[in-house]
Amino acid sequence: MKKSAPKKILxxxxxxxGGLVALFIxxxxxxxxxxxxxxxxxxxxxxxxxxxxxxxxxxxxxxxxPKSALDLASLAVAYRKAGKRSGDVxxxxxxxxxxxxxxxxxxxxxxxxxxxxAGLAQDRHDFPAALALAEQILQENPKNPQALSVKVTxxxxxxxxxxxxxxxxxxxxxxxxxxSWTLRALxxxxxxxxxEGLADFERAIRSEDFGDREGSAWARSVLGxxxxxxxxxxxxxxxxxxxLRIQPN
Length: 249
Hints:
It contains twelve helices and no strands. α5 runs antiparallel to α6, α6 (127-140) packs antiparallel against α7 and α7 packs antiparallel against α8 (161-174). The protein has helices at 4-32, 50-64, 69-86, 89-105, 111-123, 127-140, 145-157, 161-174, 178-190, 194-206, 213-229, 233-246.
């Protein structure tokens, strides 16, 4: 009986240590699961939607000049922007039709129309088609930032991290801001560089302005999914709720 006493003490000690470790892990997870002030969208979401005004303007211009390739391209951009915000599939179809008409009239050096088609291809997860359209733009302008962004996001979606890295680094250096830093953050997370990725997410969201509500919602949604994978449920819920508040559709 005397020999069993040290064993009991050892078992109790191990149980106590195990409990402390579990308590520390639980505390550490809960302490990191707190939404930060910078994650909240700082602008009003009840303001009038400028995309509808823009759409009406270009509809009138194309009505007056139906053979203007540039006006048709601008109308396609406006249709896609309005369609993305409203979730209206008809407007997205009109964006495609206007872009195709524009390209028929001006098949070269018409990046706006081609970017609309690339964006629509990404929307339906046709990433090879989006890449092909981006490459067509880059043949005429090798440093077009929108085309490079399409390349980065499409390559990431296809699991081609290395192919996306160079373009993402260039964009963050040459065009710093919400879109480029969000892309670089996603790449860092994919490469396992979580601290660098989270720093870029914060940098991206802090740099946002009211003119890019889609970008603001997207940045929070992808950051929210990261926290969801980490089981930071409070932070994930806050970020995803903010994304929906900014861009309900």
